[in-house]
Amino acid sequence: MTSPAPVLLGEPDSLPDGLPDGTVWPGPDTLVLMNRQIRSDSDPARLSRFADDRWDLNPGIFEGHARSQTLNFELIPEPLRLPAKFYIWQLINHPKARTLRRSATNRMALHSVEVLFYGSLQHVLKWFVGQGITEFCQVTNDMLWDYLDTLDEDGVAIHKRYRRITEVRRLWIHRSILPFYLQLPEAPPWDGEDTKDLLERTRGDRENRTKRISEQTMQPLLRWAIRFLEDFSNDILAAWDEHRTLLSRRPEHRRGQRRGRKSGELMGDITAFLDGLRSRGEGLPGNRREDGTLVLAWRHIASLLDCSNSIENTGSGRLILESGLPIADDCYLDTPVTADLDGQPWHRRIPFDEAPRLARLLSTACFIIITYLSGARVGEVLNLRRGCVSHDKDLGLWLMEGLYFKGAEDEDGNKIPEGTVREDPWVIIEVAAKAVAMLEQLHDSHLLFPNRLKPIKTKPGMETKRRGEARADRIIADDIAKFIDWVNERCRQLGRKDYIPADAGGTVAPSRFRRTLAWFIRRKPRGLIAASIQYGHAYTQMLQGYAGSYEAGFLDDYAFEDWLFRMEGIAEDEHRLLAGEHVSGPAADAYRYRVQAASREFAGRVLTSERHARDMLGNPLLQIHHGDGMTCVLNPTVAACQLRGSADDPMVTPDTDDCRPNCQCLARTDRDIEINKTRAAELAEIVNDTLAPPIRHEREKRELDRLLAIIEHHEHGVRP
Questions:
Q1: Fewest Cβ atoms nearer than 10 Å: which of 13, 102, 315, 685?
Q2: Model confidence, pTM
Q3: Where are the domains of the chain?
Q4: Does domain 360-546 have CATH number 1.10.443?
Q5: How far apart are CA 610 and CA 651, in angstroms?
Q6: Are 115 and 160 in contact (CB under 8 A)?
Q7: pLDDT (tens digit, 9 = 90+) per residue, 292-335?
Q8: Within 10 Å of residue 262's Cβ, how many Cβ atoms?
Q9: From its phi and psi, is residue 10 left (phi > 0), alpha (psi between -120 and 50) or beta?
């Protein structure tokens, strides 16, 4: 990476009056990314200059999966186009340009500049031009109040109103780095009132609206992904290797490199080729034309024999034509299909053109496994490098290292564009480690998820548009959709019932995996993720390093799901108490108090972020955990079980699978007693069985007596 020197390549004709100290003024030839780090593979001659109406931001974008990012100033009406360019240039380059939500040292990321430009700023500036504004200093406070009325009259969505108001505030807050003619009025817009008070409505898009993937969709999706990895991968790898070998023999890839042949050698190869087809009962490689007729695939035959395409017009070609062999309906690879599905081959013979598709499907399956079972963000997974996984033999843990971009900041609070290596690696389970190893066999790229499995060779600096080394979010989302389509088509062909149903929440976007995993772990701690992978195992890994430190973000997603789960439980508990449910046990009074107090405290509470949810989970009122036949009203200082987490951690939870009968945190509701009655009835059958072994009889009798004492105490107040 490099940082362009903060100098002008072309001096401006004149500096504006009132230019603040520390503000560099760009000339026509000034680099757009003058004060930004740029990628080392950027062509200096292609860097955008201030005079350009389209600014290419890609040389300053380091995330491998990022899409192409440019600013098109032709969208800004001509009267404010140049002022807009001066303003945006300062947001990009001025060291004191800042976001609205943090300190003055926090500079905006280039992606954020692009988002505000297209999402809000252009609309604000178009309205200004409609009012006859040609310089920002002409805007008045009365005009800004009129702008609020216009947003209301035009029926602009509430979240869009928030964003457009934010852009006006952003322009005002940067008055100190702009010359007079680019400054809004000195008084704060709208007398400094909060946006929520101005609009008298809460912004809906601040809530976490990421939808979970339903269990009916997620379970088979992950199961099929693991099936691709563990069952089909060897066949796919072999077919992909054969495909690449044959592709490398194509004439366009072998100009000047084709090996010489001795006299008669090619004829011998052709004879062996034809004899092999006859012995296997196969036809000659063919292609089907649009009219349905079959013709010989001479290019494929030339690749198989490692010879020139001109074989079609030679005596060797006539030998093939006169062989008497039929023409097959495709060009099939020699790779055998060895894996099966319930005794049937999982795929018929693999055609040459099908191998890249299967390789892409295998790569997508690995992405699903790694992303879902690591809790890492999509961008972090897409930027994983070869060699990112290691095994700690002493701890028995699989560790995955990588970069993170969200929240990666330098000591001044500015975004580090190239990302930062995670201080703590993800701790993953073995199947995710196997997925990484498979990707390292699938291609030669230094990235695990390159944009193309077959890299396109180009000369440095010859790309006019950013391709991105890694797959983009949109592309991987399309790949997942294609994976689901392939699975469902194969299920239809084979009459299988384990297809992947459509999700009620819409497209299975990769950004939904983290939220879904948090929900599954919280709601189904003793269920199955897929096949033999246990949620209980994943719970332990995720909360003790699976997603790294709190900064990794997964624990915030988990906390949000935990918050929703507990609030649903509190609502149900209060409903039962009001309906007369009886509660017994040493913590019965604490249970009743917490349920009633929590309902008063949190009813109608709106969370602004997942981290807010995590912080609120530390409230003792929410420490009610329902187990199997018991309810824990947790007080970490007296709990008898082995806690999950430290006593002062807001995420601490009891181990309800290891509840101790003498614990002072125990309460029992009527629901718990019904479970205990069912269990007591089962034990009574064993105790009354005269053929039961004496040791078992005594053990079960003691447990039965304990349960009966609990039931008696609950129903008649006799303390066990």
A1: 13
A2: 0.60
A3: 44-206, 232-254+267-345, 360-546, 553-716
A4: yes
A5: 13
A6: no
A7: 888 999 889 888 888 877 788 888 888 888 888 999 999 999 99
A8: 7
A9: beta
